[in-house]
UniProtKB/TrEMBL annotation:
<dbReference type="InterPro" id="IPR001206">
    <property type="entry name" value="Diacylglycerol_kinase_cat_dom"/>
</dbReference>
<dbReference type="GO" id="GO:0006665">
    <property type="term" value="P:sphingolipid metabolic process"/>
</dbReference>
<keyword id="KW-0547">Nucleotide-binding</keyword>
<dbReference type="InterPro" id="IPR005218">
    <property type="entry name" value="Diacylglycerol/lipid_kinase"/>
</dbReference>
<keyword id="KW-0418">Kinase</keyword>
<dbReference type="GO" id="GO:0005524">
    <property type="term" value="F:ATP binding"/>
</dbReference>
<dbReference type="InterPro" id="IPR045540">
    <property type="entry name" value="YegS/DAGK_C"/>
</dbReference>
<dbReference type="InterPro" id="IPR017438">
    <property type="entry name" value="ATP-NAD_kinase_N"/>
</dbReference>
<dbReference type="GO" id="GO:0016020">
    <property type="term" value="C:membrane"/>
</dbReference>
<keyword id="KW-0808">Transferase</keyword>
<dbReference type="GO" id="GO:0008654">
    <property type="term" value="P:phospholipid biosynthetic process"/>
</dbReference>
<keyword id="KW-0067">ATP-binding</keyword>
<dbReference type="InterPro" id="IPR016064">
    <property type="entry name" value="NAD/diacylglycerol_kinase_sf"/>
</dbReference>
<protein>
    <recommendedName>
        <fullName>DAGKc domain-containing protein</fullName>
    </recommendedName>
</protein>
<feature type="domain" description="DAGKc">
    <location>
        <begin position="37"/>
        <end position="183"/>
    </location>
</feature>
<dbReference type="Pfam" id="PF19279">
    <property type="entry name" value="YegS_C"/>
</dbReference>
<dbReference type="GO" id="GO:0016301">
    <property type="term" value="F:kinase activity"/>
</dbReference>
Length: 352
C-alpha cells in the first residue's frame, strides 16, 4: 500500500519524504486502511481559512458524510494548508507517493495551487511508487469565495454533490494553460489568465476577500483608478508581431468564467486543445457600466471593440517601456509583462 507522510492524516504509521517546506501535522479522520490490500488513496487538500473560515467550517461538517460514502473503499487523507503555496508542496508529495487523486477543497485559489503542484521544473510530476498503474487525478470540492472554474461545468457549491463525483471516479483529460516569462519559471492555470485592467482589478480584489464577493466590486473600482489603455504588441501561435492600440484587457480562457461569475471567454472549452482569447480595446469606465450585463451573460463578443480568436499560444509585450502591466491567472497575481501563454492539451486527468 502507498505510504503517505505527515502531510496527510491517516491512522497508519507512515514515512514522509519532504523536499519542500515543512507541513504541519493534521488530525486523523479515523479511517482504517488495513482491511484491503489495495484501496484508493484520496488526498483532500483543504484551505481552512478560505472564504473567511467558511471553507474550514464546511469541511468539518462534510467529514462524517465523506467517511460514510468513501471510507469503505478509500483511504481518506486530509491535509490542511498553512499558508500560500503550501497546497503546491502537498500535491507534489502526494503524486510522488502514488495517490489515486488529489482533491482541492476550497475556491479557485486552492485549485490553482493544486494544479501547479502537478508540475515541477517544467514537467509533470510522476509517481515514485513501482506499483502505481495510473496517473493521479485532480478533483474539486468547491467551497471558496470564488468557484468560477466549477461554473463552466454547471457544478454548484454543493459539497455532497462533489463527493458523489469523487465516488463515481469518472476521469477525463483536460487542458491546462502555462505562462512563461523572461526571468521566471513556468506557471500553470486551469481557468483564465488575464492582462491589464482585469488583472489589476483582481490584484486589488485579493486584498478584500474578507468581504466575500463584494471584493470583486472593490477591486474593479480600485483598478479603474489611474487606469490608462495601452498600446501593446501581440504574437499569436508563434507568428508575426502585431501592434494592437488602446488595449484595455486581454483574457485568455481555458474555461469560461472569472471575477465571481463573469462569462468572459464564453467559447472556451478545456477539452479542445485551444485557448480562447478575448480582447477589449479602448473601453472607458462607462462602457463597463453600460455593458456589464453582457460581460456576465457572455453576449459581449458582438460589442464594438471586442474581438476573439482561438489560439495555441499568445505572447504579449507592452510598447511604452514604462512597465507595470499586470498579469494574473485564476485570480493569482503573476507580475507584469512580457509573458507568453500557451496551452498544454490533455495535461491532467480530472474527476467528473
Amino acid at each position: 500500500m502507498v505510504a503517505f507522510g505527515r502531510g496527510f492524516s491517516m491512522v497508519n504509521t507512515m514515512v514522509f519524504r519532504s523536499e519542500f517546506q515543512p507541513i504541519t501535522p493534521e488530525r486523523f479522520l479515523g479511517i482504517d486502511s488495513s482491511s484491503s490490500s489495495r484501496r484508493k488513496d484520496l488526498v483532500f487538500i483543504v484551505n481552512p481559512q478560505g472564504a473567511n473560515g467558511r471553507t474550514g467550517r464546511e469541511w468539518r461538517k462534510l467529514v462524517p458524510y465523506l467517511k460514510s460514502r468513501l471510507g469503505k473503499d478509500c483511504n481518506i487523507c486530509e491535509s490542511l494548508t498553512s499558508g500560500p503555496c503550501h497546497a503546491i508542496d502537498i500535491t507534489r508529495e502526494a503524486i510522488r507517493e502514488g495517490a489515486d487523486a488529489v482533491i482541492a477543497v476550497g475556491g479557485d485559489g486552492t485549485l490553482h495551487e493544486v494544479v501547479n503542484g502537478f508540475f515541477w521544473a517544467g514537467k509533470p510530476v510522476a509517481s515514485q511508487m513501482n506499483e502505481s498503474t495510473r496517473s493521479t487525478a485532480l478533483g474539486l470540492i468547491p467551497l471558496g469565495t470564488g468557484s468560477d472554474f466549477a461554473r463552466t461545468f454547471g457544478w454548484k457549491n454543493d459539497p455532497c454533490e462533489a463527493v458523489e463525483r469523487v465516488a463515481r471516479g469518472l476521469r477525463s483529460k483536460i487542458d491546462v494553460g502555462v505562462i512563461s516569462g523572461e526571468s521566471c519559471e513556468n506557471h500553470y492555470f486551469i481557468n483564465i489568465a488575464d492582462i491589464h485592467l482585469s488583472a489589476k482589478a483582481g490584484f486589488h480584489a485579493a486584498r478584500y476577500k474578507r468581504f466575500g464577493k463584494l471584493c470583486y466590486v472593490i477591486g474593479a473600482l480600485q483598478g479603474f483608478m489611474g487606469h490608462q489603455n495601452q498600446d501593446m504588441r501581440i504574437k499569436y501561435n508563434e507568428g508575426e508581431w502585431v501592434t494592437c492600440p488602446q488595449m484595455t484587457a486581454i483574457c485568455v480562457g481555458n474555461a469560461k468564467y472569472f471575477g465571481g461569475g463573469m462569462k468572459i471567454t464564453p467559447n472556451a472549452d478545456p477539452f479542445t486543445g485551444n485557448l480562447e482569447v478575448v480582447i477589449l480595446q479602448d473601453f472607458k469606465w462607462y462602457d463597463f457600466v453600460l455593458k456589464l450585463h453582457k460581460l456576465y451573460n457572455g453576449t459581449h463578443l458582438s460589442v464594438k471593440n471586442v474581438s476573439t480568436r482561438s489560439v495555441l499560444s499568445i505572447e504579449v509585450e507592452e510598447i511604452s517601456g514604462k512597465g507595470g502591466i499586470y498579469i494574473q491567472s485564476d485570480g493569482e497575481h503573476l507580475g507584469f509583462l512580457p509573458k507568453k501563454i500557451s496551452v498544454l492539451p490533455a495535461a491532467i486527468e480530472m474527476i467528473f
